[in-house]
Amino acid sequence: MEGVAHRSYGPRASEPGFRAHTGFERLRVLGEILLRKPGGAVDGDGNPDTSFLARIPADTPSTFKTLDQDGLVLNTAQTWHQLRPGEVRTDCGGCHGHSQRPADFASTAAGRGAVAPVDLANRAVLDVEYYRDIKPILQRSCVTCHSAKSGTPPARLIWDDTALIDGFEGAWHRLANDQQARWGIKPVIASRTWRQTNASRYVRMFQSRRSLLMLKIMGRRLDGWSNEDHPTESTPGDASTLPRGASANDADLDFTGTIMPPPDSGLPALSAEKNAPSRGGSTSVARSPRPTRRSPAGMPTS
Ligand code: HEC
Ligand code: HEC
After folding, report:
1. Core-most of 15, 112, 192, 203, by most CB within 10 Å?
2. What pTM was estimated for this model as a whole?
3. Contact at 8 Å (CB) between 217 and 267?
4. How far apart are CA 234 and CA 244, in angstroms?
5. Is residue 225 within 8 Å of 207, Cβ to Cβ?
6. Would you say residue 26 lies in a domain?
7. Is residue 52 within 6 Å of ligand 1 at its C-beta?
8. Domain count of the chain?
9. Residue 93 belongs to some domain of the structure
């Protein structure tokens, strides 16, 4: 990922710049690199070999995210890396090994030159763009039900609101710019607005595995919790229907109902696209382990 926040000068200097890696940063995707090697290759320590080689643009701040087998973000490196022209870096283990000896780079597939370098410097970025990539899916697979033309859109969710607000369509605002919970079902906490990195009820910034939109598209919880782990109101948006004694601050969004579009809708499932070999022949990748339970106060989920 390359950081593209404005740097307090230049033609875009008036736009909001860096705020936080947790959500508000602007990044563009330089590329995706498959880490698991076919045939279960191991490095010199006997661990799965996840080494890679990449040509990265010089003099450019960049950083990493790790992705799961569905292409959803697992975690984000929150520090910048940069290279001068011609510089080669194989010292990741210097920090990531902490007090242990890092894996010997020469023992890895990348160190032996057994993997081809991925050229991130001379190719198109892989960004996702609302009008090009998201809106056509909403129109094809979602607006038969989630429509302003319906008197009672399911979950008060409308995906065909094309009226412009500040230059962007209402449907985009509902996804990406609704921390104030102007649309859809409101959160049950006292402020009735979305907390932390929730851009809206449906999207948690940089955390697709915790975004209601992705839960409904994948048809299951993706965050390692179960519905029972945190209290949920029985009437969506109504704090008085939380389980007796439960704090609204601990409430989360569950996966309920069906995958979207619903299987009986006659609309084609989105899963065929998900499984398309666009990422270059993934081999079996271990599912992420269940995250350690943290105190709800430390890890609010709504
Ligand atoms: C200067 C020390 C340092 C070096 C060198 C370094 N990292 Fe990191 N890296 C960090 C720190 C610190 C974090 C955790 C950042 C945070 O969560 O705030 C991190 C996090 C990450 C993450 C996110 C996963 C996680 O466990 O949080 C990835 C992926 C990553 N680094 C990749 C790399 C790669 C690839 C290299 C070599 C090109 C590298 N790092 C070199 C310090 C370093
Ligand atoms: C055949 C009608 C239909 C279609 C098509 C449809 N939905 Fe839904 N959607 C529903 C119904 C009914 C619910 C409420 C029950 C449930 O959650 O399963 C719902 C609920 C949702 C929710 C949860 C809303 C909330 O606030 O809890 C999301 C998110 C969602 N749909 C997204 C989508 C997306 C994205 C698409 C297109 C890929 C889509 N839906 C297509 C009928 C539909």
Report:
1. 203
2. 0.86
3. no
4. 11
5. no
6. yes
7. no
8. 2
9. yes
Same domain, 214 and 154: yes
**Which of 127, 144, 179 lies at the terminal end of a domain, its last residue?**
127
Residue 272 Cα to ligand 1 middle (Å):
34
- pLDDT 10s digits, 166-177: 999 999 999 999
Name the residue of 140, 156, 175, 216 whose CB sits within 8 Å of the most ligand 2 atoms, as the mutation to test its pocket. 216
For residue 151, what are the domain limits?
130-274
- Asked if 123 and 136 sit in the same domain, the reply is no
- Atom 8, ligand 2: which residue's CA is nearest? 260
- Final residue before a domain boundary, out of 82, 98, 127: 127
